[in-house]
């Protein structure tokens, strides 16, 4: 059989396997989408908008408004059910995989590398959910695709205006990703001596496009009298409060990715591959996105930068292949002469360190993928039927949801009531059971632990005459392993009637997961 035919068959086989892997992975992970924690914030926000409430005025969150309003529009068109969420997640992350494929193909000039990039991108991804991270990253990847595929005659003002509009769209979903794309574009547009007038014109076009969507939101909220609230919630609050409970030490995958970028930059500066026009934009984007995840350098946040890191990793591996697998020092005159050669020692040590960095970079996401799949298959394997559709949950959350549903049915609790508070970190349950959050806060994350916020929540609970609190502190209150204003208020005014998880032998310093009813 001719070599060309064998190679074609091998590439076709790889393409089919990669497509089946991506499709199966998308379907499986979409079915097991994360509806707790972050996954429920957008659900509740869209639900509140459809009830006529305004973000930042009637309820608080530091997410950008685009995430809530996009989902609210889809709920208005197709109904408030979990199938809408699943379809949106499927097409959002499916679009991400497609854009990663196109970016990797352009960067490496190889379909094989493009398919491998998709797989490498998929490995470290956290459990899927509908939130600002995915929507912002999809828009950023679209901008990256445009950056590496300029018009044939050359970039124009319209071209940079479009990239600016997409940058504004990213900001519309998530602040730090919008900042990362903005910084990258500014670096690419730094005026040079040869084409300074055109670069200045392109820069003005880009800035005008980037400002379009943010200005629209500012005008909208200004007309509603909530512009100050918007600025405080989406800019000042994250800068001053997000570090509370979210500032972790960099995880292992973040550290190995940092070593990878150091190695990549050394290689690029040494080789100076000017012929690869796609390298500079993707390298700047990947580096910027990676280091901006220092705001919360967890595996989940670090994985977002892999949309650019995975194509770059295959570029680096391909660049280093001659260095890694071909030696200039063999054969040697003698074994002794070989090991007395300082160049050989330096070369061997460098090769070993490079291989270790690349191995750790590829190995850690693979281990995360195995652990995540093991959890989903062995733990999160209970199918729940809820009023908004089916959910997958582990045994603990299945018991919690079923107990709450039985309680609501037994008490004949009407929909849209404000007499029940669910917290501090389970906003998705409001959506599932069609309840209204009586407070202004969708969730009570670690960044909200201030006396003023807790006092506001207590005031809202009293004003709405809340009679029942479904308290689920396990996922959040571990950050603050001590009583606070809200827990003291709960223990003073409510009593537990149904426990939602087995009780430990040693009493916990904060109220337990339970349904609490107000004291008579």
TrEMBL record:
The superkingdom of the source organism is Bacteria
The record lists the membrane-crossing segments as 12-33, 85-104, 110-127, 157-190, 202-222, 247-266, 278-297, 344-363
Provide the leader sequence positions.
none
**Does this UniProt record's set of keywords contain Nucleotide-binding?**
no
- Entry keywords, A to Z: Membrane, Transmembrane, Transmembrane helix
* This protein's name: Glycosyltransferase RgtA/B/C/D-like domain-containing protein
Q: Does the keyword Phosphoprotein apply?
A: no
């Amino acid at each position: 059989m001719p070599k060309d035919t064998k190679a074609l068959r091998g590439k076709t086989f790889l393409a089919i396997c990669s497509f089946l892997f991506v499709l199966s992975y998308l379907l499986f992970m979409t079915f097991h989408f994360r509806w707790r924690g972050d996954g429920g914030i957008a659900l509740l926000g869209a639900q509140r908008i459809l009830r006529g409430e305004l973000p930042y005025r009637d309820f608080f969150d530091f997410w950008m408004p685009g995430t809530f309003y996009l989902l609210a529009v889809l709920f208005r068109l197709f109904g408030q059910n979990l199938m809408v969420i699943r379809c949106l997640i499927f097409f959002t992350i499916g679009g991400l995989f497609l854009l990663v494929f196109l970016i990797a193909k352009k960067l490496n000039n190889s379909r094989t590398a493009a398919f491998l990039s998709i797989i490498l991108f998929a490995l470290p991804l956290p459990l899927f959910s509908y939130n600002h991270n995915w929507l912002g990253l999809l828009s950023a990847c679209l901008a990256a695709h445009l950056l590496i595929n300029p018009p044939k005659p050359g970039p124009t003002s319209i071209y940079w205006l479009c990239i600016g509009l997409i940058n504004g769209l990213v900001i519309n979903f998530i602040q730090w990703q919008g900042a990362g794309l903005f910084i990258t574009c500014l670096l690419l547009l730094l005026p040079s001596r040869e084409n300074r007038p055109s670069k200045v014109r392109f820069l003005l076009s880009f800035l005008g496009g980037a400002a379009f969507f943010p200005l629209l939101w500012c005008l909208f909220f200004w007309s509603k009298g909530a512009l100050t609230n918007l600025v405080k919630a989406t800019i000042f609050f994250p800068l001053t409060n997000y570090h509370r409970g979210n500032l972790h030490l960099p995880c292992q995958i973040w550290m190995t990715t940092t070593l990878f970028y150091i190695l990549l930059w050394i290689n690029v500066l040494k080789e100076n591959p000017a012929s690869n026009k796609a390298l500079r934009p993707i390298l700047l984007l990947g580096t910027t996105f990676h280091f901006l995840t220092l705001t919360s350098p967890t595996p989940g946040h670090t994985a977002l930068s892999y949309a650019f890191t995975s194509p770059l990793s295959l570029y680096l591996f391909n660049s280093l292949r001659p260095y890694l697998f071909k030696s200039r020092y063999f054969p040697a005159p003698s074994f002794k002469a070989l090991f007395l050669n300082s160049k050989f020692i330096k070369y061997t040590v460098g090769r070993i360190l490079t291989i270790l960095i690349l191995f750790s970079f590829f190995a850690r996401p693979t281990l995360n993928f195995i652990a995540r799949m093991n959890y989903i298959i062995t733990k999160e394997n209970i199918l729940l039927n809820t009023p908004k559709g089916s959910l997958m949950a582990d045994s603990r959350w299945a018991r919690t949801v079923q107990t709450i549903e039985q309680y609501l049915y037994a008490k004949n609790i009407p929909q849209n009531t404000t007499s029940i508070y669910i917290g501090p970190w389970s906003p998705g349950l409001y959506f599932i059971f069609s309840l209204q959050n009586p407070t202004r806060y969708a969730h009570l994350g670690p960044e909200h632990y201030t006396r003023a916020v807790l006092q506001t929540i207590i005031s809202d609970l009293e004003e709405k005459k809340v009679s029942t609190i479904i308290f689920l502190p396990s996922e959040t209150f571990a950050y603050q392993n001590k009583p606070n204003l809200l827990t003291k208020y709960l223990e003073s005014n409510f009593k537990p009637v149904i426990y939602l998880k087995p009780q430990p032998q040693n009493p916990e310093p904060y109220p337990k997961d339970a349904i609490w009813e107000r004291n008579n």
